[in-house]
Design brief:
Layout lengths: L1 E5 L6 H11 L3 E4 L1 E3 L13 E3 L2 H9 L3 E7 L2 E6 H8 L3 E5 L2 H10 L4 E6 L3 H11 L4 H14 L8 E4 L3 H16 L6 H10 L6
Parallel strand pairs: 1-7, 1-8, 2-7, 3-4, 8-9
Antiparallel strand pairs: 3-6, 5-6
Length: 202
Amino acid sequence: MLFVITGPSGSGKSTILRHLWKDLRNIQFAVSHTTRPRRPSELNGREYYFISPEEFKRMAARRMFLEWAEVHGNLYGTSKKEVGEKSRAGDLVLDIDVQGARALRALRTDAVFVFVLPPRASDLKRRLLERGEDDKQTIRRRLANACREIRDASEADYVVVNDRLNRAVLELEAIVLASRCRVDVRMKEIKSILKSFNPPGR
């Protein structure tokens, strides 16, 4: 099953997901590609694959991305190879920007879309400032974009308001666990159980 986690920059998506991976089994993370500079706290291949604009454009021209978009002046994309390889190992989570999620919604109607919201605009601004990894111009751009991006929350399947981290993590875990129990997801298991009640020769 594919879970798409989206929301404005600074809403806490990555922090929530780090806790999710500690608590749940059989869940993979698809690492996106980006042209933005790597922050001091980030590692190539963990948060993102950091590549040049030229390499990104070559990949886009070869249709190697499932989705891609220009966000905050940089390019972001999710490669088809990354999704294909990691989805074989279990449920797959994409942590992507709002524009990417919007494009993906038309392609993957089977995916579960979760929008992470900050409780207030002031909280989002504080988080971006406290992160200390973006200059003032970048923070202003991210806040301006967030005013537009949060309107997409109504298009998601679920919304998690990240006012308290522990509760936000529990809510996302509940969404994943409940989605795994959907009838269409467990149909193979259901058929096997039903068959056991009607053994051959009875």
